[in-house]
Amino acid sequence: MNKQRFAIPNNLNLEKLLQDKYPHYSAHLYKFYYLVDHLLENRFLNHKYSQMPKAIKNASKKRMIPLNSQILKKILVDRYYRDILDILLAEEIIETDNQYKKKIKPDDVAKSKAYSLMQKYINASFHYVPCTSKLFLDKLEKRKQKEIDNLAPHHNAIREMLKVINFDITAAEKQFTRDQNVLTSSQLNSLRMSLDKLLAQDYYFSVDKKSNRLYHNYDQIRREYRKFILDKNNCRMIEVDISNSQPFFLALLFKELADDNELVNDVLHYFELTANAKFYDYVKDRVAKISKVDIIQFFYCETRHEKKRLKLFFIEQFPICYELITEMKKNNHADIANELMKLEADMMINTIAPILLEKNIQFVPVHDSVMISPKYKNVVINIIRKEFFKKYNMNPPLKVK
Asked: Whole-angstrom Cα distance, residue 360 to residue 266?
């Protein structure tokens, strides 16, 4: 991490605000900058918040960023962190869902309050301000190093490998110029921040504790810009991708959770459709005015929010599948998404990535796909198919882009 500067919206003058209304906090300006930058960066670069479909119920609230109070106390200092949040809330710079839940019983799911910048700041262009406190920079660096030290060996090997991936920033900047009249202000800000980080060699790498997914500079960038990712010989990488990946991984989850007597009829039909990347088309051909996003939302939303047309279709065409989906969402509708991401990470990161590392194949993991040099295409495809078949007796539907 190269966190020596903070991204701040152009329409937000924190320095003047503190001087005029909270002068005793002016000496802590960099802490306000840190918090705003943290919310802005997560909103633009973390896929959990930046790419949530608008169709998802309460999407704006779910785009809020959870802030663990214990971590904030360590970073911003115990006696200041609450005041900093209160000032930003009072000045309507940030908002909160105000929902907090302690973990009392072993099965309880704790929840930190979540925050977001107000929309006018998210939509505004931004600039960078330097961090003037060496002590604060050292604290952030030590915290980041501690996270790195706790990485699994194969995670750390992937992190190091990503640092030497090349990126055609010149071509990307030209594309960015063309996209300025096409993308929304929020999309442009997200893209601008992604490019700026690559330009500054500000490498980001984290492992989500719930899903085990990896997040890094190259998975955050817009799909259309992946064509600018280059291997060590400056050759454009290709992407080996699992088609219809979410229905396919759900099929694998059915295999793990269902009894043998349930793996019949409609479940086998579901397996066949997903293994051939035909599931989305099959549903859309039979249910009027249904999109891919609607189908994904159906898998992940609360049962009471399921679209009636889709629910009736599943009950008729895939009754056992529907029972399994309902059972998985019974305690918490988010459980199914977390389980699918865990399964995806287990295969793509914990199983396939170590094999590629051992064979010295340079790659970029992007959730359900890997980017590789064209010369490794057949080798990597065979590895992916072999490992999926070994564990699930199913071949994933692969496509090369």
From this structure: 42
Does 13 score more than 60 pLDDT?
yes
Token code pair at residue 17: 């605000």
Q: Which residues pair with 115 in a beta bridge?
A: 65, 96
pLDDT digits (tens, 9 = 90+) for 93-135: 999 998 887 766 666 667 788 999 999 999 999 999 999 899 9
- CA dist 367 and 80 (Å) reads 38
C-alpha separations of 36 from 65, 84, 172, 189, 334 in Å: 11, 11, 27, 14, 27
Q: What's the residue count for the chain?
A: 401
Number of H helices, E strands in the chain: 21, 13
Three-state DSSP class for 109?
Answer: coil
How many other C-beta atoms can be found within 10 angstroms of the C-beta atom of residue 254? 20
pLDDT at 30: 94
> DSSP secondary-structure letter at 162?
H
Burial of 10 (0-12, 13-18, 19+ CB in 10 A): exposed
| Lowest-confidence segment of 237-241, 265-269, 392-396 by average pLDDT | 265-269
Which pLDDT tens digit goes with each residue over 329-338?
888 888 888 8
Could you give the CA distance from residue 301 to residue 284 in angstroms, rounded to a whole number?
Answer: 19
Distance CA 287, CA 303 (A): 19
Query: Could you tell me if 1 and 117 are in contact, meaning their C-beta atoms sit under 8 angstroms apart?
Result: no
pLDDT classification of 70: cutoffs 50, 70, 90: confident
Q: Which of 249, 243, 227 is nearest to 381 (CA)?
A: 243
- Report CA 397 to chain centroid distance, whole Å: 23
Give the span between the Cα atoms of 321 and 150, in whole angstroms: 38
Tokens of 116: 């977001």
The distance from CA 192 to its chain's CA centroid, rounded to whole angstroms, is: 17
SS3 label, residue 316: helix
Residues 317-320: contacts with CB within 8 Å, 24+ apart?
317/266, 317/269, 317/286, 318/266, 318/267, 318/269, 318/270, 319/266, 320/258, 320/262, 320/264, 320/265, 320/266, 320/267
The answer to whether 373 and 237 are in contact (CB under 8 A) is yes
**pTM (two decimals):** 0.84
Does the pLDDT of residue 54 top 70, yes or no? Answer: no
Distance in angstroms (rounded) separating the CA atoms of residues 390 and 395 = 9
